[in-house]
Amino acid sequence: MAQGSAKRSYLSAPERRAEIVAAAARIGIEEGLERITLRSVAEKVGVRPGLINHYFPEAESLVAQAFSHTAEQEHELLFAHEPGDAPLARVAHLLRHNFSEQSLDVSRLWLNARNLSRYNGALRHTVTEQETLNRTLLTELIELGASAGDFRIERPAEESALLILILLDALSGYANEELSEISPLVVPLIYTAAERELGLPPGALVEHTG
Known about the structure:
Layout: H1 3-9, H2 13-31, H3 38-45, H4 49-55, H5 59-78, H6 87-98, H7 104-116, H8 121-148, H9 157-172, H10 179-197
Helix pairs in contact: 2-3, 2-5, 3-4, 5-7, 5-8, 6-8, 8-9, 9-10
C-alpha cells in the first residue's frame, strides 16, 4: 500500500469528513456545485464512492456542506481584522476584498448556489444561513462604528448592513462577465452609496483601501 493511502486509512471520522467536504468544495469552485457527486468526490480524495456514501448518503447534503465550507472561509477573509482596527478600516477591507479578483470565484459560487438552491432544500437552508451570518456580522460592525462615532447612520444598523450587502450582491451578479469591464462603472457607485449610508464624507472608504 502506498504511503499516502496508508495515511488516508488512519484518518479519524471527523478528519475524513473534513477531507471529503474540502474536496467537494474544490470541485464546487473549479467546476460548479452541480458537478459534486459521490463519484467525483471519491476520485478527488482517492477512495471508493462507497466511503463517501458512508459519510454523506445523499449528495444534496454534501453539496450544501461544500458551499458552507467555502462561504465560511470567505467570512473569515471579509471580516478579518487586527486588534484595534477601527470600524471604518474594517468596512473598507470588506469592500476591497469584494472588489478583488480573488473573490470572483466565490461570487460565481454564490450565483451557482442560489440557482441550485431552488431544487436542493439542504442547499437552500445553507444559503439562507450564510446570508444571515453575513448580515449579522456587518450589522454588528456598523453598530460598533456608530457607537464609536465613526458612522452616523439614520436607520437601524441592520437595514444599513442589508443595503450594503444588496449593493455587493448586485456586483456579484456580473461575476460571469469580465469583472475588469464592469468594475470601473459599478465600484465607485457602491463606495459612494456605502459612504452615504454610513454618514461618511466622500472618499472616506476609498482612502482606507490601501
